[in-house]
Every structure is written in C-alpha cells, then in structure tokens.
C-alpha cells in the first residue's frame, strides 16, 4: 500500500468531482491510499502574475501541510503541480524560508510534489497497471492532451519530454484505447488567458478540438481541470466562433482507466461529463451501462 | 516608433530585482521565444521578444501599459527553447509583477484576489456542493481557509493591486472609443 497526501486545489472539488471520484476509485484498485489535506487552500498559481512571492507563500503553506503529515503529495491539476513544485524549490532559499517561518508555518521534511498520472507512471508502473485491465477499450481512438504544466518547465520537473511528451500516450495505450499520434501535442489549452481575452483563449482551445475532429477522435483525454474548462465548457463557444460542430467528449484520464478496470460507469462519474459521452460508452464491450441510465 | 528620449534607464534593473527577472540581460534577441509561443501563433499582437527588447531599452510606460503583456499564458514553451537558458515565462511574469506594483492590474486578478481573501479558494463552496460531494462518497472540504488572508496581508499585495485604477485593458477600450 502506497500512501500520499491528496491536494485538490480550487476547481477539482467543486467543478470536477468526476475527476476526483474516478481518481480515488482508480487509486483504490491500485492499492494507493489518499490522505486528505485539511485546511489546504488555493495552490497560489492565480496570484503568480500579480505577485510571485505571495503565490510561493500560498503554495509553501500547502506543501507544509503534507510535510507535517509526513507524506509526499499528489495533485490532479497541472498548474497546482507547477506552483507547488516551484514553492518546493523556494524552500531552499533562506530569505524566503525566513518569511515562511515568520508566518508561523512549518516544513519539517522535504515533500515530493507530483501529478497523479506521473505517480501512476513512476511509482505503480505500466506493467503493474496492465494487470488490472479487465475490459480493453479496443474500439476507442482518443486524443491525449497533456497540458503545459504536466511536463514544463523541464528544469522544475525533469520528467517526460517537454517538446514531444509520451507518458500520457503510453498510459492511454495500456487501456486498449488508441492514443492518436498528432502534431502540436504540447499545445496550450488557452486557459491562462481566459480571464484576459476570452476570444483568444477560445481560439487557442479550438486548435486541438479541430485536431480531434479531423482525426475522428472519440474523445479528448485531459489530466487538468482547467484544460477541461477550455475544451469542454468552452466547446460550444469554439463551435459558434468557428461555425462548426465538434461534440467531442472530454474525459479525465482516470475515467478512461477506470472503465478499462471494469469499474461501474457511476464509479468514474460518467454522467458528469458535460459533453455527453454516450457514443464512447456504446463502443465499450461489455458495455458499462446501467439499466436506469438508458 | 520608439523614442529613446522617453527611456527610463533604471527600468531594467527594477525588473532584474523582481522574482524571475534575473535572466533579462542575457537576452540577445534571437526570437526563439516568439517563434515557440502558442499565443503568438494565434495572435501576433503578443510578442515576448518585443516585450523583453523594450524592457532592455527602458521603455517603461510602453511595456507596463500594454494590454498584451497579460497575454502570456505562462506555458513555458519559450523557456524550453531559449538558447540563453532564460526562464522566459518567469521573466515575463516578473514584468507583470512590476506592472501590478506600478498600478497596472487587470480587473480579473482583482476579483480573484478578493475571492482568495474571503474564501482562501477561487470558488465558493456552497451547501449544494457539499451535499453533492457527500452523495458521491467524497470527503467534506473546508468552506473557507482564513490563513490565506493572513498571507495576503503579510505581503501587502492588496495595497499594490489597489494603488491606482490603471487597468491596461480598460485603457485599451478607452483608446478604441
């Protein structure tokens, strides 16, 4: 049994419960235990553009909570991963650490900060996860969307390839689904500029939606709640702006993995996907349907 | 047109002192950052190289009042390719931080700051959310985290944000009108 502190951030626990639910249920299958972080706040990333030091202090307080729990930390959001990793680096800066202590916080032991998918890849491993696959999703072809802060900046992570990432593709392929090869895999979702210029953010998001459509993808696989906001919640806006129809479901990776584990569709929260993934579920054999959902 | 008569020779030193700003002098203007930038790919009004050049030249007002400074998505595509090893996204972030200090803070960030001060998170956790979580078998979460306000008071960030009503995006709108 491996145990980690689970950092939820702002968006996941109130806007992406299906991500959290599927991650928790997939973890259970893989014998991973999550400890909840009481009093964990926003990671700090939204304030980085306003004042980096404030964002580091917010992030450092959060990793301090995991440190006191004597556990390494798992995140579900890419930007939380970057922000908390950034703060971890700051802890070695004496001047910063002094301010952190002055606020009454503590960091008794070093905490490793990693994204859930990275932990699956590194700590559990592809071969081990493969043993849990009960229903190969052979009929599905999907587009992997990494999101920027899953592997960049590489100076902070030293994981995967920052130009041509591959770990999520590998993780998708073990479910039996085909992860479609395409260019611009590392393209940004546009989420960070949504609050500054919505039209620009939607234009950036549209790029991958059009790639998904041109490749006849059954779904786009996301590992970040904010990327999902761009591809799912703003999909209608992209359709309107570019006068097209996408209707591309956006699934969180643990949902896909959970389906291949043979988990009940409700255990991976399939009814919370805003672009209805009915066509995805129909292609899975035997279907993870429930009579009441038909 | 750049008129160096308006240049502020201290500007670049101010940026270098900010968190993330120390790589500024290493830039030799190759434009790899602009070529790698996903935002620039879709909107040429954003150009990280131009922002960095103008900063080095001391064109303080031009840089700080530009609405396009805020178009950086902080995706680090530039950082990965900079031949000088500059953390370009963090450098642009340092310029944003200085802009806020000088009174140029986009309204969106002010709203987020207000939420963080009151709640400690970006979304209000309603009873409805807690009930939904309970129904799904998810553990309860804290509605507010008061220690966040303590940090915001400590760094005095709220004062910076409200120093002058000088939102560049509002300025742009006014110019258009």
Describe this structure in words.
Chain A is of the alpha/beta class and 294 residues long. Chain A has 14 helices and 8 strands. Chain A has 2 domains: 2-116, Glutathione S-transferase Yfyf (Class Pi), Chain A, domain 2, CATH 1.20.1050.140; 131-293, Rossmann fold (3-Layer(aba) Sandwich), CATH 3.40.50. Chain A has helices at 11-15, 17-29, 52-68, 78-90, 94-102, 116-124, 126-130, 154-157, 167-173, 198-214, 225-233, 235-241, 253-260, 278-282, and strands at residues 2-7, 32-36, 73-75, 113-115, 141-144, 178-179, 219-222, 250-252. The two termini of chain A are 37 Å apart. Chain B is mostly helical and 177 residues long. Chain B has 2 domains: 8-101, Alpha-helical ferredoxin (Fumarate Reductase Iron-sulfur Protein, Chain B, domain 2, Orthogonal Bundle); 107-166, no CATH class. Chains A and B meet through helix 1, helix 2, helix 3 and helix 10 of A and helix 3, helix 6, helix 7, helix 8 and helix 9 of B.
- How can the largest sheet of chain A be summarized? 4 strands, parallel
The low-confidence runs of chain B, each spanning 5 or more residues with pLDDT under 50, are none
Rg over alpha carbons of chain A: 19 Å
Determine the fraction of residues in helical runs of chain A and give it as a percent range: 40-55%
Largest sheet of chain B: none
Tell the overall outline of chain A. globular
Give the termini separation of chain A. 37 Å
At CATH level 2, the architecture of the largest domain in chain A is: 3-Layer(aba) Sandwich
Q: Remind me, CATH topology of the largest domain in chain A? A: Rossmann fold
The structure class of chain A reads: alpha/beta
Biggest interface, residues from each chain: A-B, 55 and 59 residues
Query: What is the total tally of β strands of chain A?
Result: 8
Assembly form of the protein: heterodimer
Average pLDDT reading of chain B: 91
Helix percentage range of chain B? 40-55%
Shape of chain B: elongated
CATH class of the largest domain in chain A: Alpha Beta
Radius of gyration of chain B equals 19 Å
β-strand amount of chain A: 5-15%
The strand order across the widest sheet of chain A is 2-1-3-4
For this structure, what is the CATH class of the largest domain in chain B? Mainly Alpha
């Amino acid at each position: 049994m491996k145990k980690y502190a689970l950092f939820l951030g702002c968006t996941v626990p109130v806007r992406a419960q299906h991500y959290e639910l599927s991650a928790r249920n997939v973890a259970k299958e893989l014998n991973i235990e999550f400890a909840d972080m009481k009093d964990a706040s926003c990671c700090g990333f939204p304030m980085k553009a306003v004042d980096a030091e404030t964002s580091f202090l917010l992030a450092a307080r959060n990793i301090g909570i995991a440190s006191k729990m004597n556990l390494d930390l798992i995140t579900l959001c890419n930007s939380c991963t970057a922000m908390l990793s950034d703060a971890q680096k700051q802890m070695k800066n004496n001047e910063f650490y002094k301010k952190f202590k002055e606020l009454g916080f503590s960091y008794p032991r070093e905490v490793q900060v990693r994204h859930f998918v990275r932990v699956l890849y590194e700590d559990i491993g592809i071969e081990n996860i493969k043993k849990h696959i009960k229903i190969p999703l052979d009929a599905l072809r999907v587009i992997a969307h990494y999101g920027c802060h899953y592997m960049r900046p590489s100076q902070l992570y030293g994981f995967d390839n920052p130009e041509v990432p591959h770990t999520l593709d590998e993780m998708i392929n073990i479910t039996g689904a085909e992860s479609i090869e395409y260019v611009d895999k590392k393209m940004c979702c546009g989420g960070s500029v949504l609050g500054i210029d919505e039209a620009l953010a939607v234009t950036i998001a549209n790029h991958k939606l059009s790639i998904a459509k041109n490749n006849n993808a059954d779904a786009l696989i996301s590992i970040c709640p904010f990327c999902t906001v761009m591809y799912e919640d703003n999909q209608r806006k992209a359709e309107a702006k570019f006068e097209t129809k996408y209707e591309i479901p956006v699934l969180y990776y643990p949902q896909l993995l959970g389906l291949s584990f043979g988990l009940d569709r409700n255990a991976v929260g399939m009814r919370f996907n805003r672009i209805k993934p009915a066509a995805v579920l129909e292609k899975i054999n035997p279907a993870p349907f429930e009579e009441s959902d038909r | 047109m750049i008129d160096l008569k308006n240049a502020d020779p201290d500007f670049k030193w101010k940026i270098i002192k900010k968190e993330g700003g120390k790589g500024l002098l290493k830039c030799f203007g190759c434009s790899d950052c602009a070529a790698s930038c996903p935002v620039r790919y879709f909107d040429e009004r954003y150009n990280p190289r131009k922002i960095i050049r103008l900063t080095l030249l001391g064109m303080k007002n031009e840089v700080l009042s530009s609405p396009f400074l805020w178009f950086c998505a902080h995706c680090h595509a530039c950082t990965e390719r900079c031949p000088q090893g500059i953390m370009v996204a963090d450098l642009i972030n340092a310029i944003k931080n200085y802009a806020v200090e000088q009174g140029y803070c986009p309204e969106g960030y002010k709203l987020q700051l207000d939420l963080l001060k009151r709640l400690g998170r970006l979304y209000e956790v309603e009873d409805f959310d807690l009930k939904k979580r309970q129904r799904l078998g998810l553990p309860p979460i804290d509605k507010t985290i008061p220690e966040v306000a303590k940090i915001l008071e400590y760094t005095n960030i709220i004062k910076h944000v409200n120093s002058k009503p000088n939102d560049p995006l509002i300025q742009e709108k006014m110019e258009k009108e």
